[in-house]
Design goal:
Layout lengths: L6 H11 L7 E4 L9 H16 L3 E6 L9 H13 L7 E3 L4 H13 L3 E4 L3 H7 L17 H12 L9 E4 L14 E5 L13 E3 L1 H11 L4 E5 L6 H10 L7 E5 L2 E3 L6 H9 L14 H7 L3 H11 L6 E3 L1 H15 L1 E3 L1 E2 L2 E6 L7 E7 L9 E7 L1 E5 L3 E2 L10 E2 L3 E4 L4 E9 L5 E9 L16 E2 L2 E2 L3 E9 L20 E9 L10 E4 L3 E5 L8 E8 L6
Parallel strand pairs: 1-2, 2-3, 8-9, 10-11, 12-27, 14-22, 18-19, 20-23, 25-29
Antiparallel strand pairs: 4-5, 5-6, 6-7, 13-26, 14-17, 15-16, 17-24, 20-21, 21-22, 25-26, 27-28, 28-29
Helix pairs in contact: 7-8, 11-12
Bound molecules: adenosine-5'-triphosphate and magnesium ion (MG).
């Protein structure tokens, strides 16, 4: 699938045609304070695909200007995710590597009379800023001399002040209708240890000051970001201009991607991890790229989904179904189709010889010959799904097995149920059936039509398996806080069996368990304990 056209692509085309630029250079600038989620995938894919479309390139830049929540485990996971999506950054940078240059640019602003140190308390500063209907008022420190500001800023850097005691502010316009231009803070004091710089710095640049400088330093031509930064753009341009940066990047905003019934912001995802509601950032229920991958989503399905969801200047909320149908399309031919019994009911074929096993050959996937064939064991002891048996046939449309009735077993024979065996509590323990040797699959037998076709595994030759079946992490039917909306049944664990042919399956292998859904081998699975994560049902559950 080719990357579709969109408004940013058009801007880039024009910029190349008018020779404003000779190369398109973009960047993906995540803050390393969490794992990437499917929303970030839109930003990753957009940046890389657009640059690739014009033979340009994309940098990966960790926007690590907040020391508190940043950590190297996030740096590592982000790099893995981008690689998994199939992209290679031209360069990998850390915004913190530019701290010296940023500091110099702040000094330049002070020297031009465009920045000042302000000791006003945060509370008073908020009042003085005014609001959309009320212009702000100047701080009483706004007219400090350049010399005094240079000295105070130097003292800030050298640790003479406590956190929150003062900030460096850009001197722009306290009456601007754009709140972002009312003398925004550009440096603050923070004593937390930085994941790369340690305790070298106690002052940190604010996002709105740092980001344009980072882009300009790297020679980024088009700085793509999400819509919430639209009214920060005048400040972005002001910083680049007044800091006299030689390269002038252009900020372009696009709509954020949300998915129905899916909590996506890092803050919430972090809460789920920290409160141990999920097993980690890569829990298969998480909308993180690592969670989706572990659950069985393919990069192709994610890319197709992002491509077909389009890109515009409005935030969009897209139904989960669209991602799932991209996934089903991708897996339909890729996955081996095999039989698994998730909720087993024991079946004894009373007219089949004991200790005999025969092997029935079948293709793994009729729509993809390349996947080859395997041999399916058939024997006296079998398992079928509990759901596929009812003592009494409820109506004519019932297509499964019931007492005194006949059904076809996939790739095998017709079986007829003759007796139901109950345990002491009156629950069904097993069923006794007979098979008809004339009805072997492929024999052309057509004298009777069975009720329907169900799947099975041989109990004499199969593999034990654990199945993780997922539901939404949070219920979305109220406005209650996240932790009150947690779905307690978002993980259901089932113990059953899979056919012996997939005994050597390894993490990330994908299967279609026929009549049920797509599954992916979990990272904790091994030969003695096969674990499958249910990726998605075969049919959409969407009504
Ligand atoms: P979150 O809201 O999840 O905490 P963030 O915007 O704080 O995300 P960053 O690490 O700053 O996360 O994001 C890196 C880039 O990804 C930014 O350019 C941001 O605009 C983009 N991005 C994040 N979430 C989305 C989304 N849902 N849709 C599109 N782009 C996104
Ligand atoms: Mg952010």
């Amino acid at each position: 699938m080719e990357y579709p056209s969109n408004f940013i692509k058009t801007i880039m085309e024009n910029d190349l045609e008018s020779k404003k630029h000779t190369k398109i250079i973009t960047r993906f600038p995540p803050e390393p304070n969490g794992f990437l989620h499917i929303g970030h995938a839109r930003a990753v894919i957009t940046n890389f695909e657009l640059a690739n479309a014009f033979n340009g390139y994309t940098n990966l830049r960790y926007d690590d200007t907040n020391p508190e929540k940043e950590d190297d485990i996030y740096v590592k996971s982000i790099a893995e995710d981008i690689e998994w999506l199939g992209y290679t950054p031209k360069e990998v940078y850390f915004a913190s590597d530019y701290f010296d240059e940023m500091y110099e640019r702040a000094i330049l602003l002070i020297k031009k009379g465009l920045a000042y140190v302000d000791d006003t308390s945060a509370t008073l500063m908020a009042i003085e800023r005014g609001d959309v209907n009320k212009p702000g008022v100047n701080s009483k420190y706004r007219n400090r001399s350049i010399e005094e500001n240079l000295e105070l800023f130097n003292k800030m850097k050298d640790g003479h002040f406590k956190e929150g005691e003062c900030v460096l502010r850009a001197k722009i316009d306290m009456a601007s209708p754009n709140m972002n231009l009312r003398d925004p803070a550009i440096y603050r004091i923070n004593n937390a240890s930085h994941h790369r710089q340690g305790s070298k710095w106690v002052i940190y640049p604010m996002y709105d000051f740092a980001h344009p400088l980072e882009d300009a330093i790297e020679g980024i031509t088009h700085s793509l970001c999400s819509l919430e930064f639209e009214d920060h753009r005048p400040l972005y341009d002001w910083v680049v201009r007044e800091c006299e940066m030689p390269n002038i990047p252009r900020q372009i905003e696009f709509g954020r991607l949300s998915i129905e019934n899916t909590v996506m912001s890092k803050r919430y995802l972090r809460t789920l991890v920290e409160s141990k509601i999920v097993s980690g950032w890569d829990d298969p229920r998480m909308p993180t790229l690592q969670g989706l991958r572990r659950r069985g989503y393919t990069k192709e399905s994610i890319k197709n989904f992002i491509f077909s969801s389009g890109l515009s200047k409005i935030n969009s909320t897209i139904s989960n179904d669209m991602l799932d149908s991209a996934l089903r399309d991708d897996l339909a031919t890729k996955a081996k189709r095999v039989m698994a019994i998730i909720d087993p009911l024991k079946v004894t074929i009373t007219n089949y010889e004991e200790n005999k096993i025969e092997y029935l050959e079948a293709a793994y996937n009729n729509d993809n010959e390349e996947l080859g064939t395997r041999k399916i064991p058939f024997s006296r002891n079998l398992y079928i799904e509990k759901d596929d048996f009812l003592v009494e046939k409820p109506d004519k449309k019932y297509k499964r097995l019931s007492l005194n009735d006949e059904v076809r077993l996939f790739h095998a024979y017709f079986i007829k149920c003759n007796e139901v065996v109950y345990d002491d509590y009156g629950k069904i323990k097993e069923i006794l059936c007979t098979y008809d040797p004339l009805t072997k699959s492929g024999s052309g037998f057509n004298e009777r039509k069975p009720n329907g076709t169900i799947h099975f595994v041989s109990a004499d030759e199969c593999e034990k398996a654990t199945f993780n079946i997922f539901g939404p992490l949070v219920n979305n039917d109220s406005l209650a806080p996240l932790l009150e909306r947690i779905n307690k049944d978002s993980l259901i664990v089932k113990k059953g069996f899979v056919e012996a042919s997939i005994k050597n399956a390894v993490p990330f292998d994908k299967f279609q368990f026929i009549r049920d859904g797509f599954y992916c081998v979990d990272i904790k699975s091994n030969e003695s304990n096969l674990i499958f994560n249910k990726t998605v049902s075969l049919k959409s559950s969407f009504k």
